[in-house]
Amino acid sequence: MSRIISNLLPNMPWQDKPEGYAMPVWRYKENPIIDRDAIESSNSVFNSAIVPFKDGFAGVFRCDSKAVSMDLYVGFSKDGITWNINSTPISFQGDDEEILKREYRYDPRVCYIEDRFYITWCNGYYGPTIGVGYTFDFKNFYQLENAFLPYNRNGVLFPRKINEKFAMLSRPSDTGHTAFGDIFYSQSTDMEYWGHHRHVMSTHKGDESAWQSTKIGAGPIPIETEDGWLIIYHGVINTCNGFVYRMGCALLDINEPWKVLLRSKYYILGPQKIYECVGDVPNVVFPCAALTDGDTGRIAIYYGCADTVTGLAFTTVDELMKYMKKNPLVTQ
Ligand code: BMA
Predict the structure, then answer these.
(1) pLDDT at position 7, please?
(2) Residue nearest to atom 10 of ligand 1 (CA)
(3) Ligand 1: which residue has its CA nearest to atom 7?
(4) All domains in the chain, ordered by first residue
(5) How does DSSP classify residue 19?
(6) pLDDT in tens, 2-26
(7) pLDDT at 1 over 80
(8) Would the pLDDT of 181 be above 90?
């Protein structure tokens, strides 16, 4: 048994694994949980970040408008499944007008550290980079400096300081649809200046694990377990029909998270249901958040489906650990 080190969350959404199901991650039966027109202005609602908040849940949602512009919206839910999303985007306050100027915002992650909820997202600033902000109450939002120079995406914070520093995974990229990308680890004492960058994982070029041959990027906030940091990430292959996005998992060293202890050679969830294969960008499952329960080891993954709607899937820390141990990626 591998144990999650986290608070108890008995009210997290959950469905048991269907009898005889072969894969380690199974979908919520009533998927998708959020439709593309969840708010009046939206073309699509996907790649969004959910956390426990008060006696329910809060989330930061990527809602693309009918102009197909990308922005972040806050929402609340009692059960993690039925959501009320605000009709106007998040407005950030901050010290510097230059940083508050909005070009576009997408693919949020939300991470509770110490006393507040930090939000990271892909922020347009002469190209994509990692925006950073925080809130205490999901009403007032404060924006800090961008973490990196452009171009970067998939900035994902760790839920506590490691070696006395804030820690973030990210994926240096380009201005376009990026046909490359590895995961790196960066450190900061103040959430403003990031350095001491370390390489974590690369794409896999051989056919042992072709689904992650083009680019990889961190997904939900890393899950602290007794064996290390469990990460769920997206891996991409370039096919004659374009990019296909799947989910994988890996285990990182607890004190030196740039060291990979285990990594699955097989994907854990791929686009196979109609709402994952058909939409504005077909064949995409893109995880951005996970709820966890320290007692049962349950994990609920929130993921974008075909860049159009939001899905929910379930697993446990044991399922992922067993799957990685049984099918390890040998040549990293
Ligand atoms: C990535 C990001 C994601 C998106 C994915 C598939 O580059 O833009 O938001 O889900 O492509 O289109």
Answers:
(1) 86
(2) 307
(3) 177
(4) 26-326 (2.115.10.20)
(5) T
(6) 899 988 999 999 999 999 999 999 9
(7) no
(8) yes
The ligand 1 site (C-beta within 6 Å) comprises 47, 106-107, 177, 245, 281, 284, 286, 304, 307
Atom of ligand 1 nearest to the CA of 243: 6
- CA of residue 207 to ligand 1 center, whole Å: 24
Reading the block at residue 63, the tokens are 């809602």
Using CA positions, which residue lies closest to atom 2 of ligand 1? 107
Let me know the angle formed at the C-alpha of 202 by 196 and 206, rounded to the nearest 5 degrees: 160
Q: What is the DSSP string of 260-278?
A: EEEEBSS-SB-S-SHHHHS
Residue 229 amino acid letter: W
Mutate to test the pocket of ligand 1, among 44, 120, 245 (most ligand atoms within 8 A of CB): 245
Distance CA 94, CA 115 (A): 18
Buried b (16+ CB within 10 A) or exposed e, 13-37: bbeeeeeeeebbbbbbeebbbbebe
Nearest ligand 1 atom to the CA of 307 is 10
Measure the CA–CA gap between 264 and 266, rounded to whole angstroms: 5
Place of tokens 């990196």: 148
Radius of gyration from C-alpha coordinates of the chain: 18
Record the pTM: 0.98
Q: How many C-beta atoms surround the C-beta of residue 261 within 10 A?
A: 15
